[in-house]
Amino acid sequence: MDFPILSSIIILPTIGAIFILFGRSSSNYNAAKYISLFVSLANFVLSLYLWYEFDKNSSGFQFVEQRVWLKDFINYKVGIDGISVLFIILTTFITPLCIISVNSTIKYRLKDFLVAILFMETMMIGVFCSLDLVIFYLFFEAGLIPMFLIIGIWGGERRVYSAFKFFLYTLLGSVLMLVAIITIYWMTGTTDVVELYQIGINPKFQNLLWLAFFSSFAVKTPMWPVHTWLPDAHVEAPTAGSVLLAAILLKMAGYGFIRFSVGLFPIASEFFVPLVFGLSLIAIIYTSLVALMQEDMKKLIAYSSVAHMGFVTMGIFTMTPEGIEGSIFQMISHGIISAALFLCVGVVYERMHTREISKYGGLVSVMPRYAIVFMVFTLGSLGLPGTTGFVGEFLILLGTFKVNFLVATIASLGVILGAAYMLWLYRRIVFGEISNSEINKLKDLNKSEMIILSLLAFTSIIFGFYPDPLLSTTSASVESLINLFNSNLNIYTAGKL
Amino acid sequence: MEKLIIFLPLFASIISGFFGKKIGNKASQITTSLFVSIAALLSIYLFYDVIINGYSSNVIIAKWISSGLLDVNWSIKIDQLSAIMLVVVTLVSAIVHIYSIGYMSHDPHQPRFMSYLSLFTFAMLVLVTSDNFLQLFFGWEGVGLCSYFLIGFWFKKPSANSAAIKAFIVNRVGDFGFALGIFLIFYIFGTVNYEQVFNQVVLYEDNNLKFLGLEFNSINLICFLLFIGAMGKSAQIFLHTWLPDAMEGPTPVSALIHAATMVTAGVFLVVRCSPIYEYSPIILNFITIIGMSTALFAASIALVQDDIKKIIAYSTCSQLGYMFFATGVGAYNIAMFHLFTHAFFKALLFLGAGSIIHSFKDEQDIKKMGGVYKHLPYTYSFMIIGTLALTGFPFLSGFYSKDLIIEFAYLKGNTVGYYACAIGIFTAVLTSVYSWRLIFKTFHGNYNNKNQSISSVHESPLVMLLPLIILAIGSILSGFIFKDLFIGHGNFINFWDGSIFFLEPLSAEHPPKYILYLTPVLVTISIPFSYYIFLKNKSFINGLVNSNRPVYLFLKNKWYFDELYEILFVKSSKILGKYFWKKIDGLVIDRFGPDGLSNLFKYFSIKATKFQTGFIYQYAFVMLIGFSLILTIIIIK
Description:
The complex is a heterodimer.
Chain A: H1 5-22, H2 29-53, E1 62-70, E2 74-80, H3 82-105, H4 110-129, H5 133-142, H6 144-154, H7 159-188, H8 193-199, H9 203-220, H10 229-236, H11 239-264, H12 266-271, H13 273-292, H14 297-316, H15 321-352, H16 363-366, H17 368-381, H18 388-403, H19 405-430, H20 447-465, H21 468-496
Antiparallel strand pairs in A: 1-2
Helix pairs in contact in A: 1-2, 1-4, 2-3, 2-4, 3-4, 3-11, 3-15, 3-21, 4-5, 4-6, 4-11, 5-7, 6-7, 7-9, 7-10, 9-11, 10-14, 11-14, 11-15, 13-14, 13-19, 14-15, 14-18, 14-19, 15-17, 15-18, 15-20, 15-21, 17-19, 17-20, 18-19, 18-20
Chain B: H1 2-53, E1 57-67, E2 70-78, H2 80-103, H3 110-128, H4 133-151, H5 158-189, H6 194-200, E3 208-211, E4 214-217, H7 218-233, H8 242-245, H9 251-260, H10 265-272, H11 274-277, H12 281-302, H13 308-328, H14 332-359, H15 377-391, H16 397-412, H17 415-443, H18 462-487, H19 513-536, H20 538-547, H21 549-556, H22 561-592, H23 594-611, H24 616-636
Antiparallel strand pairs in B: 1-2, 3-4
Helix pairs in contact in B: 1-2, 1-3, 2-3, 2-9, 2-14, 2-18, 3-4, 4-5, 5-7, 7-10, 7-12, 9-14, 10-14, 12-13, 12-17, 13-14, 13-16, 13-17, 14-15, 14-16, 14-18, 15-17, 15-18, 16-17, 16-18, 17-19, 19-20, 22-23
């Protein structure tokens, strides 16, 4: 590949953002909107092309680009394998939808908002392509800034508290990761991921380093007990912010677990499996129960995100092909479904200006189209076969069952709870008699809402029935990751004997 | 042709669901009914082909999930078992579709209703024609979903919504077991394809595995877990609570889903997995016990209920119990036989009840009916036929299938078998009593409805009565005609080959004559008996109720299962959820986490500001102390 396609995908949104930022008319929002929409759509098309060109049968990194940045220290190195390509597509798919949804949700400083979104897209794609720890760290952290601003500027009443909480948590986690990255450089003399895979890191230090990375990823996943920032952040964030947060930002952590925790520190990963399983189980059961009792729609969905991400972390650390592929699939699926659920909440929030569940009821009579799409995502979220939610959850549980019966059994209970809180939410919002007279005035979905939501619904159903395009993309890379993991482990145990 | 049978209902559902508003009520009713009827005719033809020519096929439609070792396809498998299910499902479905045209004629959401019905039919067909456990699970959850939609069809009624959610969640509890069963199957056999699994079972007969520190036989564990799923779907005791509540849905739904098809999926599952179950005698006994307990328990509740649909619902529950104990004693084919005949007479009873409810303008309480047999002659006769068939009156369909179940329970020859046989006979009597109670209270005696006059009670329209004729014929004849086929007598000795597996062939002996005659005789006697106690001499019943008040209340309140579950699961989850949320998230994590941290900073910065008093002498004092400290350190060093 001569054409630097990855770098183009990374940089394109930023170029768009610069155009908007320095565009002449400050009042003309339409221009800004069209530019951002155009740029993000172009990026989506580019990433689809990338997927098309991607060789599914090869497990190595493809489209690798390498440039010297600081001589003998840091190289700008990007490349993708079967694991990252899907996340890139998820990012470029969700971003334009967010931009369309912005239309009606953001009332002031729209231009700045679009700039923040586009800038964030760049950072997130960067995260998924980086093959150098320092580059990864930069993208990873820089991606938080726009999110921080989105919550802090366009958020609700308690936006400052939430933004602060978000920042405090993520910052504390990241500092440790930075220390770990520096340590790795001292020990091995490189921060190149591919090289590190081959060299391997001294087993003596793996546990500490693993914990340092873990602290950062666990906060962003988020895992119990560092999850409390998420519901607050979601509640205060504007719809588009929630969507990006749930759909993509959380996935950076899951991706990090696969690429770095498992890939770089296999021995520590094996050592910490009980910890991860324990925390994941708590996340699944505990947050599902908490979700059951929520009175705020967004908080409910936020808590359900924690539960779903609990499945993801559990699946990754099964170290089985089913578990890891399931986790990747679940992340994609959750990206689509949670994005859609937050959009659904946004739709009614804009009309009613409340997220309190008890203020709703009987929506189906006035908003039948809304009722249908919302139902599709409710079913997706509770993991009904035929939606993407099922495939991911099923594969994860299947993988977990291979490793540990008890963990899989307890986690399966979460599936029952998932049905309980989602159906109950749906029933309280959509079904029943209309008790609040405001509801009678509501209008059904408008054209742009319909387009966004049906696109997401369609995607979720199509890949629920035919998940093969996604699964076959990841399988070779996942397999090589597991081989790497096992060979490391074997060498280690052989050395011990 | 298989593809056509399965996809016609799906197309019907899509047309009616998405374009229902455009094409109108009539068009969507006709499309869905027509498509499903065609599917029914095709399946009857297919069934014929299977019987006569031994046709069987396994078509693979597309790849579904492939990851690691797991490799699952969308498929259509036709064999004896699925052919029978195809006939039952599409035939009853077609009848219910046509019946609904009349029954739902005043409803504002008719296309949606028809669309759900067709979608249900599709999901059920996917379930029965699967060639692997995962697609079965898809259909399994799919029918559960449609059942959820249809129970909650009248979305304004809070009770309907609760019932719908309850049905879904109780089923999920069963599915939890089912899913674990599938995981275990995959873990042991490395595949979820029926054929590959069944071929390997014998190799793992003595395979044990550890769970929670205990050793289990893997085959037993698989059978047990799958059966949990079956219990949920087929409303067996402990997981039955959703079925009576499901009667909140429109009556045609109850006939199709909660009598003839979906609830029998559990039985189908056990029969389909006979090659596994045959290696697990312990679990088979367990199934027998659950089955007979359900049969007895549900019949006892049905005795005292007053809601016409709830009586029939408990009756369904009880009959499903019969089917299970038939599978438990290894008579899978007889279970299928009862499933087959039950589909006719139970659908007939439900649709008949629907016709009664329709005539009484949505009244369901049998205390508020009575004396109307002259006004509803057709409905009355259909109900009588259904009741006779259900109770096992000689030579009607239920007679053949139910007596065979009791016979084979006896022939099983072990303690559980004898118990099952005895309870089967006793339950048959109970069944007869509560069924005739329903008939006598509804049609005979005095007219008890104060809301409308007896003259306004009128017969249902033709479109509702005609479909009942087919079911009535089925209820009368299906037992006699198909008994040889299902038992495997005469020409059909090898009929089940390949689709049902018997480790040892079923006993060909006959039980003692008195067992054979006992049930029909008791059932026949119970008719005049019921007539006497429910119509002629009501003081007897009243006396019985008054002298045994606690027992009566226990039955009336359905053994208090709902109340118990409410406390055990619903309330406790809510309390736990609230505790985690408010106490642990709020008071522990946040307080000592981010809020604690920020308070800590705040605390120190306030302390630090207190230091900045602005008085020179204080600063000078601090400087002095600092200097002397530094000096001291240097000197000491």
